[in-house]
Amino acid sequence: MSKVEKFRKTRETEIKLKLDLSGGPIEIGTGVGFLDHMLELLAYHAGFGLEIQASGDLHVDAHHTVEDVGIVLGEAFSEALGKREGLARYGEATIPMEEALAQVALDLAVRPYFRFEGTFPRERVGDFDLELIPEFLKALAMNGRFTLHVRLLYGENAHHMAEAVFKALAYALRRALRTAEGGPRSTKGLL
Asked: Which Pfam family is one of this chain's hits (predicted)?
């Protein structure tokens, strides 16, 4: 596993990102406060170093910024994993956040897939549109080239529910990134 730096500029967004799977500073500034909060939780609980500076067409809405940060983080994650040899491969976590409960299961094999089950009790937390959470996660999984299943089991407070999702993702990643002896965790001999 390695450190990765990425830069992406489109007509809608500009993103500069540093990812270190072995740890390091966490400094997030996307212009979308709730996303910053979720990414800080993700990096902290996964044990990653993560620095992101992003700007986007927030005068339209946060969609492009949130999705593009997911794309760039996914690309960086895929690059950092390299050939993905020596990894436990699978990770799962069920995390409570007070009254909320979320479950994440993932497979780091190079088979991108995404599924999200569950609903938030309202559409927004502050000015953040909660439908962007599945958009971010889908962009992360598809560009990170891994399988990601997310189940938002229940909850009453939408903020707690979102935190439970991101913390469950962090702990599932921690487990999948553990070192495993004996080469790729596949009967094919290749992930």
From this structure: IGPD
pLDDT digits over 21-58, tens only?
Answer: 999 999 999 999 999 999 999 999 999 999 999 999 99
In the numeric block, the tokens 């001999």 are attached to 189
Q: Which amino acid is at 5?
A: E
Provide the whole-model pTM. 0.94
**Residue 6 — φ and ψ, nearest 5°?**
-130, 150
CA distance 123 to 117: 16
User: What residue ranges define each of the domains in the chain, with the CATH number in brackets?
Assistant: 3-176 (3.30.230.40)
3-state secondary structure string across 53-104: EEEECCCCCCHHHHHHHHHHHHHHHHHHHCCCCCECCEEEEEEEECCEEEEE
